[in-house]
Amino acid sequence: MAVGFFVLYLFHMGRQPMVVVADPELCKEVGIKKFKSISNRSLPSAFSGSPLGQKGLFSTRDARWSAMRNAIVSLYQPSHLASLIPTMQTYIKSSADHISSNITEDINMSILSHKLSTDIIGQAAFGVNFGLLDAENKANKDCDDQNEVTEFIKEHMYATTSLKMDLSGSFSIILGLLVPILHKPFRQILKTIPGTADRKIHQTNLKLSKRVDEIVAKRASEKSRSSKDFLSVVLNANDTDKASRQLFTPDYISALTYEHLLAGSTSTAFTISSALYLISKHPEVEKKLLEEIDRFDPHDKTLNADELHNNFPYLDQVIKEAMRIHTGSPLVARQTSQKVEIGGYILPKNTWVWIAPEVLHKDPKHFPEPNVFRPERFDPACEEEKKRHPYAFIPFGIGPRMCIGQKFSLQEIKLTLIHLYSRYIFRHSHKMESPIEFDYGVVVNFKNGVKIRAIKRVNN
Ligand code: HEM
Predict the structure, then answer these.
(1) Tag placement on the chain: N or C end, fewer CB within 10 Å?
(2) Distance of CA 443 from the midpoint of ligand 1 (Å)
């Protein structure tokens, strides 16, 4: 134990041995150095109980996980991401236009950014325009039945906001932790009893699986497909490559595609609304950011990838600091697959090892005055940044299993903030609670949303 901040914390959750790690060197040991013995994730039962949850990258294990990850990693290469910029820009412009037509009203940025990120990932993963940002809801040209899409998204929104990582979600999860052997039989019983969380989760999972399977089957039957969205790229590979067909059977394709929607929407939306919330509270940060954005004058211009990566260093610092202050994934889960030594302790096989970015990100050793929003602490020229351990800041996780969508989401977040701040500045609504409250779902979210007012910028 370190004073005030733990670095390695061993305990039992029910009968499950657990270790929580919150020291950069130990995180490196768990996430990188001992990866061979700790390569899989421990998962909340609500997630692993769903057919969609079981077969995505998050839950798959060992050789299957690495084969799947290697096969799809090309979709996250810079050239592919660069080709998505115009699509992202179109949706971002729609969201900014929505703000323009509601300029005299409060905007719940959490809802708007969730719609934005869902529309973007819907296009990038499924090749479908979910049309959430289209006020008339008439933009969907790719799907025969708009109601199907609306229903699907409703279920998806429920799944992302109601499955709890804590123990409030389902009785079978609590029981499973105390007596693991009882988890499955109890889940089987509870999911037949109306009103239980287990039943609601089960029904949502069934509906979502059915809808995703339908979208995948329809796309699989199409003769010509795009080469841009995730689903089409995997199906195209299956058409020509036997190894790909063996790896990506329809159930795995459904799970992977849905996982992109789940992982790609909530956490990106949370980061965008968190940045707006924090920038609006700090006029000195806002001023510096506007100067950087105006220097480049991106109003109504499509930025290319080089410009985006090289011309906005302060924006990079602002996003990092927002992710540090409000860490969307406070815990990164792993499980030992054999006996292994970490930090001088022997951990038995099947120990849950949880890395705690939230604790790391608030440790004054790495981030002096940790509760102060100060983007400059990430300036590469600043002493604090130079001195900091490279794994003290890990909002996207660590090692070979870290977030595959990191560059995708950063591109989306940067484009969004540049476009929004080229047209508006934002102030908190008087309805915004203080201090802000959080909701601990699959990822963290703002309990009541980020409520802001937009002010149109002169000459923009
Ligand atoms: C701000 C946005 C995001 C944050 C903060 C975030 C955070 C994370 C974290 C902490 C992990 C666990 C990493 C680990 O275990 O070391 C993860 C994994 C993952 N994320 Fe993200 N993520 C974001 C956006 C996205 C996007 C946009 C996508 C998809 C397009 C995505 C897809 C995934 C997948 C598939 C995994 C599992 C990777 C694997 O096990 O191989 N994420 N993410």
Answers:
(1) N
(2) 11
CA 389 / ligand 1 centre spacing (Å): 22
Q: Which amino acid is at 152?
A: F
Is the overall model pTM greater than 0.70, yes or no? yes
The CATH architecture assigned to 25-323+335-350+400-456 reads: Orthogonal Bundle (1.10)
Q: Using a 6 Å cutoff on CB, does residue 442 contact ligand 1?
A: no
**Along the 460 residues of the chain, how does pLDDT read in single tens digits?**
343 455 677 777 767 788 999 999 999 999 999 999 999 998 755 455 566 677 889 889 999 999 999 989 988 889 999 999 999 999 999 999 999 988 889 999 999 999 999 899 988 888 888 788 875 344 444 444 445 555 666 666 666 555 444 444 556 555 665 566 666 676 667 667 776 767 776 777 777 778 788 888 888 888 888 777 889 989 988 988 999 999 999 889 988 888 888 888 889 999 999 999 999 999 999 999 999 999 987 666 778 999 999 999 999 999 999 999 999 999 999 999 999 999 999 999 999 999 999 999 999 999 999 999 999 999 999 999 999 999 999 999 999 999 999 999 999 999 999 999 999 999 999 999 999 999 876 678 899 999 999 999 976 5
Cα–Cα distance for residue pair 74/237, rounded to 1 Å = 12
Q: What is the DSSP letter of 458?
A: T
356 lines ligand 1 (CB under 6 A): no
Nearest residue (CA) to ligand 1, atom 1: 268
Residue to mutate, 403, 411, 412, 443, ligand 1, most ligand atoms under 8 Å from C-beta? 403
Q: Tell me if 403 is assigned to a ligand binding site.
A: yes
Rounded-to-integer distance, Cα 73 and Cα 422, Å: 33
Mutate to test the pocket of ligand 1, among 318, 396, 411 (most ligand atoms within 8 A of CB): 396
Domain ranges for the chain, please list them: 25-323+335-350+400-456
What ligand 1 atom has the least distance to the C-alpha of 334?
A: 15
What is the full DSSP assignment across 372-405? S--GGGG-TTSHHHHHS-TTS--TT--GGGS-TT
Q: Contact 106/451 with Cβ under 8 angstroms?
A: yes
- Ligand 1 center from residue 320 Cα (angstroms): 16
| Beta carbon of 267 within 6 Å of any ligand 1 atom | yes
Residue 275 near residue 322 (C-beta atoms within 8 A): yes
Query: How far is C-alpha 189 from the geometric centre of its chain's CA atoms?
Result: 32
